[in-house]
Amino acid sequence: MDRTSSIKSMDSEREKFRTYIEKTGVMSALTDALVHLYEEQERPTDALGHIKKTLGSFTPSVQHCHMLEEKVKEQEAIIESQRTQINELMGEVANLRELLAHVEGRGEATKTPSETPRTS
């Protein structure tokens, strides 16, 4: 009797697990990956790697990681250069605004009464 209840308990656990992987989409994803592998014209030599790639858990090579790290460093350098350029341009804009305000101020002072706009 003990063995029968143990088997029923295992069956119950298996059923719960099966239900779980179906509800969470694991079974569907695995099925899709296997179908994708089956439909390949040329069978890949690394079937497990192909399935991992299909599932999206592809682990990039060390070389690929190094290449990406270099690209990140390059982009960070470009960003820093552009920040410097932005700051320089903002300084130029501030100087030009100051100059414009100064020129406009002098222009107002040199206008004759007939040139000033009337406010009626």
TrEMBL record:
One of its GO terms (molecular function) is transcription coactivator activity. GO terms for cellular component: nucleus. Signal peptide: none annotated. Keywords: Coiled coil, Nucleus. Residues 65-106 form a coiled coil. Transmembrane segments: none annotated. The keyword S-adenosyl-L-methionine does not apply. The keyword Nucleus applies. It is found in: Nucleus. Its main location: nucleus. PANTHER family: ASSOCIATE OF C-MYC AMY-1, C-MYC-BINDING PROTEIN. Belongs to the AMY1 family. This is c-Myc-binding protein. It comes from Portunus trituberculatus (Swimming crab). The gene is MYCBP.
